[in-house]
Design brief:
Elements (H helix, E strand, L loop, with lengths): L2 E2 L14 H10 L4 E7 L19 H14 L5 E8 L6 H8 L6 E4 L3 E2 L6 E2 L7 H16 L5 E2 L11 H17 L4 E4 H5 L7 H9 L4 E4 L11 H13 L4 E2 L10
Parallel strand pairs: 1-2, 2-3, 3-4, 4-7, 8-9, 9-10
Antiparallel strand pairs: 5-6
């Protein structure tokens, strides 16, 4: 594994370890490129306080910390500053305005909630509801069309176990959109490591059939998640099984340009 663009920090409230520990773990694991992409802050209305992302008032500290590490470790590893972003159409313009003063280099799309975290459906909850799947695919497709994203993190996160034909149709359309936009799809190593509902074999079969390109993402929430050879090997075997090309690096798309 040459590069990992999917790493979190303690600010998201469900990760541990310091940013410096993550950097040193990446170097020890042989990475040449490390991207920090913590869960983006959202200026929620009505006083709602998220329990799964950094606060708005932590944005400046996050940026400063990563930029300092970028300078400190410049001779050992290439570090980039980004965010894992959910496409909440209600808030995205305010988020972009909020980030304008900062040198944010990239976004990855990671859709954990539908509509809004505050009262919206959680994608990791088991469901057989066709409307949930259709809505997930529609929101993600709209997000990809914005041109804001460098790649699509764990696109198979939705935990749908309903109608197989519906899953096939909706996910094929989503993969065709990603392919048309040359959008890499992430095989999520944390999902492999924690034996989650993703990677989903059916999804990756469809992705392979539609000509999509894959990239590996550590989704590191703990220091030891950064480089896990067993998960990396399993991800490559998955890609080989479904004839998916795996890229090592991506060209970062600046969402603030």
């Amino acid at each position: 594994m040459y590069a990992n663009y999917h790493s979190h920090t303690w600010r998201c409230q469900h990760a541990s370890g310091t940013e410096k520990e993550y950097v040193e773990s990446a170097i020890q694991g042989g990475l040449k490129i490390l991207g920090f992409s913590d869960h983006v802050p959202v200026p929620f209305e009505g006083g709602y306080k998220s329990r799964c992302r950094m606060r708005v008032d932590q944005l400046e500290d996050y940026v400063t910390t990563i930029l300092d590490l970028k300078k400190e470790y410049s001779r050992e590893i290439e570090i980039h500053l980004g965010f894992e972003v959910e496409y909440f159409s209600r808030y995205i313009d305010r988020q972009l305005e909020m980030m304008k003063p900062y040198p944010i280099e990239y976004f990855i799309l990671g859709q954990h909630f539908l509509g809004d975290e505050n009262g919206g459906d959680y994608c990791g909850a088991p469901t057989t509801n066709p409307e949930t799947l259709v809505r997930y695919c529609r929101i993600c497709s709209e997000a990809l069309d914005t041109g804001l994203f460098t790649y699509f993190a764990h696109p198979d996160v939705i935990r749908f176990s309903g109608n197989d034909e519906l899953y096939e149709r909706e996910m094929r359309a989503l993969c065709e959109k990603a392919h048309a936009l040359s959008m890499p799809l992430e095989i999520n190593l944390l999902g492999i490591e924690d034996n989650r509902n993703y990677p989903n074999d059916t999804f990756w079969r469809i992705a392979g059939e539609t000509g999509c390109t894959a990239i590996l993402g550590s989704d590191a929430h703990r220091v030891h998640n950064m480089v896990r050879p067993d998960a990396i090997e399993a991800a490559h075997k998955l890609a080989e099984r479904y004839h998916l090309p795996v890229i090592d690096t991506v060209e970062l798309v600046n969402p603030l340009a």
